[in-house]
Each structure stands twice: as C-alpha cells, then as structure tokens.
From TrEMBL, chain A:
Signal peptide from the UniProt entry: none
Stored Pfam families: Fer4_15 (PF13459)
Keyword Cytoplasm among record annotations: no
Role of this protein: Ferredoxins are iron-sulfur proteins that transfer electrons in a wide variety of metabolic reactions.
Protein name, entry field: Ferredoxin
Domain of life: Bacteria
Cofactor(s) it depends on: [3Fe-4S] cluster
Membrane-crossing residue ranges in chain numbering: none
Source organism of the structure: Amycolatopsis magusensis
Keywords (A to Z) from UniProt: 3Fe-4S, Electron transport, Iron, Iron-sulfur, Metal-binding, Transport
InterPro entries: 3Fe4S_ferredoxin, Fe-S_cluster_ET
Length: 64, 390
C-alpha cells in the first residue's frame, strides 16, 4: 500500500504520528507531516488507514 | 441544554440526533442557529473551509453577548480563517509536535509527582482541584510559554471569569483587559531580551522573518494560557471521578499501563468538555446532512452529541477505556483541531498513570451528584473535588 501526504493541508495535529510512529513524523519547525516510508503492508497498513481517517485536515491519502 | 446527569450529555441530543440531526435552535442571545448532532455531520462541517471561525463576526452564533469585546479584541488562532490561519498556526504548531511533547515527559512526571506529594501533605480531606488538577497543567503551560507561575492566581481567576457564561459583560471586558495588559508587559520584557521558551522563540522567529507583531503574540499567549489552564484541569478532575466510579475500568488501567493511551481518548470522548469550541458560521450556502445551510447562518457542531453518536460508537454512553476512541471530536476536527492536544494527552496519561498507583486508597468524599460542577462554563468540569485516601 502506498501513502501520499498533502503538506499544504496538514495542520500539524500529529494524530498520524500517534497512530503509527514508524511511518509518520512531524517537521521540527512547522509541525507538518513527514513520511518515513511511503509504502507499507500488514498491520502497519491498518494503522495507516486509521491515521488517514482521523487526520483532521484530510491531508493523508492511500494510493492503492 | 443541561447534562442529564453530571456525566451524560443532555437527553435532547439523542432525540435530535434520531429525529432532527440538523435542526434550528434558539440561542440564549435570542438568535437562531443550526445544531448538528451526528458524528459524521460535525466532522464534515469542521473540515469544510466554507465555515468560518471568526468569533468576532457579528453573524457568529455566540452564546453570550460579546459586542463590547468585538471592537478591540485581536483575533487569536481559534478565531482566524484562511489565508491568515494557516501560516499563523504553522508558526507555533512545531512547538506541540508529538516528539516535542515526548521530550517533556520527564519534566511533566516530576510536576505530577510534586503535585501528588502536595496533595498527600495537605492531609485529608484535600481538594484534588487545588493540589493536582489545576497546578499540573498550569505549571506545564507556564514553563512552556515562559510565564511566571508565581502569577498563576491572577490569571486563573481571570480566565475562569471569562469562561463562565454568567459573567457580566463589563467583568468579561475587565478580565480581558487585565490579562491583555499583563501579557503585553511580559512580552515587551521578552522582546527586550528573548528567553528560551515558546514566547521568546516566537519573538526570535518573527525577527528572522523581518516581522514584529507584538499584538499577535499577546493574543497567542492569551489563548494558550487560557486554553492550557482550564481544559486539562477539568479533564483531570472528571477523569478521576469517572475512573473511581468504574472500578472495573480502573482495574484495567492499573493492570496494564499500555491501556492508558486509549483510556485518555475514551475519557476525552466521554466528557467532551469544550463542546461548543466547534461553533462556526457559514460563508457560503452549504449542504450538511441533506439540509441547506445558508451563507451567514450560525452552526453549532455539538461535539458532545457527536461523540455519543451510536453510529460512531457502540454503547456510546458507557465508559469503555479499551474501545480505542481515537476518532472522537473532543479536540475538534479540521484546520482548528486543538493545538495543544498532544500536550493535554501527555499530561492526562501521566496523571492517571501516577495518581492511582501512588494513592491506591483514593476515594471521593462526597456523593458524586453533590459535587460542584461547572454547569455554566464554556468548559465543563468541577470547581472542587474533595478526596481522601487512608
Ligand atoms: S494527522 Fe494530518 S494534520 Fe495532523 S500531522 Fe498528521 S497529516 Fe498533518
């Protein structure tokens, strides 16, 4: 599964980092999302799906 | 609408959600607004940029008359819309990342331990609000911002006056003036010699960008100080009562510190103490839940109703700390979702993890329906919570 982020929409809430810290991090200066990897599977993919759902800015999407 | 019992949302919410999920209500000011009660609708509205957060707009559906404040009050983040909001939020949100909050953990643990020492030293019965609920978030936010904790009585008083819906307009005006002038002075001092704290760093950052915006810093400090005080404090008090009232849930928490994360989310969902932070005004005609909301009309996204929507949560009125309620809207949703949410989470986790372990005999000294609830405050909570432990 591939993940994409829209940094312009991101409001730095960090919900994604809480959901899956192995995939998401936040930029030190403006708090926006940083992808540590853009391709995941298995249980990690489940948590990424949850992150996509709870992201308040709808800044995360799953490409396939 | 009043909470049914101190713990459940008003009964009207269930009826509305089932029969009239998008409905016109009359506000205490006599104006009308739409009330949303479904989780899905509240989320959709909050994520939609066609709803404005401008609290100073004459069309904004405020619950109290704020005409006196309107002329002079400089909008802070919560009241900004695009294009101002994005850059302003980005300028500070880096201070509240998950990683930064994690780095604060040891210091917050120290503060919590100290507060519990003070509670125990006070002797029984003691007030949990005075010794733990208020000082923990207060100290943490003061250290973060670089505001002297020695002045906490002063700003606690004024901030609770502001949040109380019964405060007269003049007194509200006075509280705003006092806080603004206090913070104005503090920021002027920091501008002369920037300190290494959030406000000092913002000053340095602004200079690097060739800006000096004193007023914006004062309003930011104002927002963070008021928001950082009352909200977490109330969640500590209410969460403690709820866990003591549900011994099975407390046992789950004590057996496995790993569940504290979910427990905090569930307590946030269950109480949704700042339910009207999610109020907006439409700037265009928008359809929500099949109903057309016209430009200029106010909307109350009732987040407490949303967080008790059976379509989103099984048995929503039950406290179930294992449920994993991460999609709650207690911190709002959309671009304005609470800036301090990760700080609040961290404080709540540490308090609940520490309090019940260090004070295993903790109990409440009054029947819970006789406790002193904040029924007329913008942020729900408890004025005091008498506890004993031996
Ligand atoms: S949850 Fe969404 S808004 Fe928050 S940091 Fe992650 S991508 Fe950005």
């Amino acid at each position: 599964m591939k993940i994409a982020t829209d940094v312009d929409r991101c409001v730095g809430a960090g919900q994604c980092v809480l959901a899956e810290p192995a995939v998401f991090d936040q930029d030190e200066s403006d708090g926006t999302v940083v992808l540590l990897t853009d391709s995941v599977d298995g249980e990690t993919a489940e948590r990424v799906r949850e992150a996509t759902h709870i992201c308040p800015a709808q800044a995360l999407s799953i490409l396939d | 609408m009043e909470r049914r019992c101190p713990y459940a949302p008003p009964a009207e919410y269930d009826e509305l959600r089932a029969e009239n999920p998008v409905t016109k209500v009359e506000l205490p000011t006599g104006r009308q607004a739409w009330a949303l009660t479904r989780h899905e609708d509240v989320r959709a509205m909050l994520a939609d940029p066609r709803f404005s957060s401008d609290r100073m707009s004459p069309q904004f559906p405020t619950l109290v008359d704020n005409t006196q404040l309107r002329s002079t009050f400089r909008p802070s983040l919560i009241s900004m819309d695009p294009p101002e909001h994005g850059p302003a939020r980005r300028a500070v949100v880096g201070e509240f990342t998950v990683r930064r909050m994690e780095a604060l953990r040891p210091r917050i643990q120290e503060i919590v331990d100290q507060a519990i020492d003070d509670l125990l030293a006070a002797g029984e019965p003691a007030d949990l609000v005075t010794h733990v609920s208020l000082p923990v978030p207060s100290l943490v936010i003061c250290e973060q911002l670089g505001v002297p904790y020695a002045d906490h009585d002063f700003f606690q008083q004024h901030s609770s006056k502001l949040l109380n819906r019964e405060t007269a307009q003049e007194d509200r005006r006075d509280a705003v003036d006092q806080l603004t002038s206090y913070l104005g002075k503090l920021i002027t001092e920091k501008e002369a010699a920037p300190t290494d704290d959030l406000l000092g760093r913002q000053i340095v950052k602004q200079r690097e960008e060739g800006k000096v915006d004193h007023e914006a810093l004062v309003s930011l400090a104002f927002l963070l100080l008021v928001a950082g005080h009352e909200t977490t404090a109330n969640m500590i008090s209410l969460g403690t009562v709820a866990l003591l009232e549900h011994p099975d849930q407390l046992a789950l928490l004590l057996n496995d510190p790993g569940v504290t994360l979910n427990a905090v989310e569930e307590l946030l969902r269950y109480f949704t103490i700042a339910e009207l932070a999610t109020t907006r005004v439409a700037t265009e005609d928008v359809e929500i839940g099949g109903v057309l909301i016209r430009a200029g009309e106010g909307v109350l996204g009732l987040s407490n109703a949303a967080n008790h929507d059976p379509a989103a949560y099984d048995r929503p009125d039950e406290l179930d700390i294992a449920r994993g309620a991460r999609n709650h809207v207690a911190f709002g949703f959309g671009a304005h979702q609470c800036l301090g949410q990760n700080l609040a989470r961290m404080e709540l986790q540490i308090v609940f993890d520490t309090l019940f372990r260090r004070v295993p005999g903790l109990r409440i000294e009054k029947p819970i329906d006789e406790l002193d609830y904040k029924r007329n405050s913008t942020v729900y909570g408890l004025h005091s919570l008498p506890v004993a432990w031996s």
